[in-house]
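2024-03-11 09:14:02 DEBUG pipeline.ingest accepted 1 chain
2024-03-11 09:14:02 DEBUG pipeline.ingest length=246
2024-03-11 09:14:03 DEBUG pipeline.predict start
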Amino acid sequence: MQEQLWFTALLNAAIGKPVNAAMQALPAAFHPANPQAPITNYVAMQVLVVAALIVIFLLIRSRLSVEKPGPLQHIAEMLDQFVNGQCGDIIGDHYERFIPLLTAIFVFVLFSNLLGIIPGFESPTADVRVPLGLAVVSFVYYNLHGLRKNGPIGYFKHFLGPIWWMAPLMLIIEIFSHFARILSLTVRLWANIFAGDLVTLAFFSMVPLLLPVLFNLLHIFVAILQAYVFMLLTIIYLSGAVAESH
């Protein structure tokens, strides 16, 4: 059984009983492996990331200023401009409706990736279930917007290709291709963060000075890059889904 982190133990002590009672009311597949500690590390780390993001955005909201913007506001504005720029370049017109979710995906993945660097915590994205959940959200989101923009018939034409006599083959290829995106998003994020956490932990155990710092810097770079790649791929999938059929 996985050892509980201190924050996980704190959550289980505070709300473990009602969480267990709620999970016991669900089908057997959802029952916790350990009823005494139903909240696992990866769930606790996600709670911590979400709580930290809420606090940060509340601080930014409470200190908004046109005349004297603070450091947090500058960072938030840079982030907003960055996401807007990526969406504008790839999706084109009417991209604004996608900004909130894409920004949320980017900052959640980024903070989750970086959390494992702090001693006593783990990256929730190092557990395959978290990247899988994010990939499913991305998959459902871009397909729903494709249906909204083009309608069922128009969106279905995306899967048939431009040559009518190849439509049956293209339909099969496109369906497999779209579902493969879930696997691609999941494995890319999970494998990079999981491997980074393992390498950092191994070098901290063997050589506690200097060398782990270099690997931590590399891990920070990978964490930022993977958060960007996950958001970028979601933007690309959105761009294809909401494109006009021709």
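2024-03-11 09:14:41 DEBUG pipeline.report The chain has two domains: 1-39, 96-242.
2024-03-11 09:14:41 DEBUG pipeline.predict end
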